[in-house]
Write a structure and sequence with these properties.
Strands 5-4-6-7-3-8-9-10-11 form a nine-stranded mixed sheet, sandwiched between helices. The longest helix is centred in the first third of the chain and has 29 residues. It has about 500 residues and is α/β, with parallel strands linked by helices. The protein contains 19 helices and 14 strands.
Length: about 500
């Protein structure tokens, strides 16, 4: 048979399914032992750079995500709790069912090699990503239609996948003194927004619920750049130029300062090389992106870890190629009790950023009055940010002109900041109804599933709003009694 008529079957993609099974068995075994043991195993796996998107089998990724969700809520990922978590998420059948979870747990023998298994899984995922990145270029080259610019972009993306390939000449394995390796690169310090934003190419996420003020804060950050005599590039995929201009006028910017804020609303996707060239030509001192999910949609991507890494390669990395910090507005999951420190989508968002600031409303801002936001540092890779801060925004009663000030606080991020955990409030109410009498706070925290701090907030809200009463009991116990039932749907 001639060569051009042969059918060549493609080899299966790189995978490490046995390592996936052993890793899941290890975390389930550790979860059956204790929360501390499981947390230690998970920490070793995180240090190996693994996230759920690296699993070849989606069923395995679902089980791993369920384990992480339990750990985030302070619960051990033992097999029964993992099965329950998968049931609540509607993913138990897709994960292989109860029998599959129990099978993985029963086959586990040890937890000591979890990081090794994670490394094997990550390596296989990286090989698959390389194939996806380079295959289109190789196919085009075989057909004689390879565009050099696209080939260079693919090579750049492949180097990012490999976490920085060695330069020509093999210098990657030639050690040099650390001062020479740093090559004068400045350490990242929080030098913007009152010490809450890093400079020198850092990526910061600003997350919050709709209407919390993310876009307004982005405008304020851009305004501060212009007031300082620097240039901000505002990449807007969600708002409008008129809306941004209104906010900048309210911030009191002069015409000269407004000219330092460059507005970009992409209508088509640009190649990474074109974005790098744009950044090199404009030389912005800061890039604001509104918003993460809108950028994913513009690139035809979804909120999976794989697509989030693809967006980083295609857009975010080129945008910061000139050394400017990037601030990206992002949305959060609706279920506040389960979202933890994650925004909508995969964990890769958190992994790829230097800092993540979560926004919540303390006092809503209205024209002619003062508002206050809480900013909580959910991630601080460089360790210089305050744990929490408040942003006070004042709207002038007559003109509506805006002014703002940032103040670091020592408040615990779990303190009551106006958040009403209505779902937990109903669960606490039902627990008291079933008990038929008073329960201590400790008993309620044990009986009501959820993060302890949020359960306490739910109890406080019920007492504050007259649905429950609280008295001092024996041995300093705080006894809570139901006054009238609470239902989330009644609001």
């Amino acid at each position: 048979m001639s060569r051009d008529r042969q059918t060549v079957e493609s080899p299966p993609p790189p995978q490490a399914t046995e390592a996936e099974e052993r890793l899941l068995g290890a975390i389930l075994l550790a979860g059956g032992d204790s929360l501390d043991h499981a947390s230690t195993v998970a920490a070793h796996v995180r240090d190996a750079g693994l996230d759920p998107g690296d699993f070849y089998r989606e069923s395995h990724a679902r089980i791993w995500r369920a384990c992480l969700a339990l750990l985030d809520r302070g619960q051990p990922p033992d097999p029964l709790l993992v099965i329950g978590e998968l049931e609540r998420a509607g993913e138990l059948d897709d994960a292989g069912g109860r029998a599959r979870v129990q099978e993985l747990a029963a086959a586990a023998a040890a937890t000591a090699n979890a990081a090794h298994y994670a490394g094997l899984i990550r390596d296989a995922a990286r090989q698959r990503e390389l194939i996806r990145t380079l295959s289109p270029v190789l196919d085009a080259a075989r057909s004689g239609g390879c565009d050099p610019a696209r080939a260079l972009d693919a090579i750049d993306r492949a180097r990012v996948v490999l976490d920085g390939a060695a330069p020509a000449g093999g210098g990657g394995w030639q050690p040099v003194p650390v001062a020479d390796a740093a090559d004068g690169t400045p350490a990242r310090q929080p030098d913007r927004l009152g010490g809450l934003l890093y400079g020198a190419g850092a990526v910061t996420l600003l997350s919050g619920e709709p209407g919390v003020g993310k876009s307004m804060l982005l405008a304020a950050i851009a305004a501060e750049e212009a007031i300082a005599g620097r240039t901000a590039l505002y990449v807007d995929l969600e708002g409008s130029p008129g809306m941004l201009l209104d906010r900048l006028h309210a911030a009191g910017l002069t015409g000269e300062q407004l000219a330092r804020i460059l507005y970009l609303r992409p209508q088509v996707r640009a190649e990474p090389t074109a974005i790098r060239q744009l950044v090199a030509d404009l030389r912005p001192s800061l890039v604001a992106v509104d918003s993460y999910d809108a950028a994913l949609a513009a690139y035809g991507l979804e909120t999976t870890n794989e697509d989030i890494r693809a967006l980083s390669i295609a857009l975010l990395e080129p945008l910061r190629s000139g050394g400017a910090p990037i601030v990206v507005a992002d949305h959060v999951a609706k279920d506040r009790e389960r979202r933890g420190r994650y925004t909508i989508g995969g964990q890769a968002k958190l992994a790829l950023c230097d800092a993540h600031l979560g926004l919540t409303v303390i006092t809503p801002l209205r024209r002619g009055s003062a508002g206050r936001l809480r900013l909580t540092a959910h991630k601080d890779w460089h360790g210089h940010l305050p744990r929490a801060a408040t942003l006070d925004i004042t709207s002038h009663p007559a003109t509506g002109a805006l002014s703002w000030a940032v103040r670091a606080t020592d408040d615990d991020a779990d303190d009551d900041d106006g958040f009403r955990p209505t779902g937990l409030m109903e669960r606490v109410s039902r627990a008291l109804e079933i008990a038929g009498g008073p329960l201590s706070r400790t008993q309620l925290e044990r009986q009501v599933q959820g993060k302890g701090a949020y359960v306490r907030q739910a109890i406080d809200a019920l007492v504050r709003e007259g649905h429950a009463t609280e008295v001092q009991g024996a041995r300093s116990a705080r006894l809570v009694s139901l006054a009238r039932p609470y239902r989330e749907g009644d609001e």
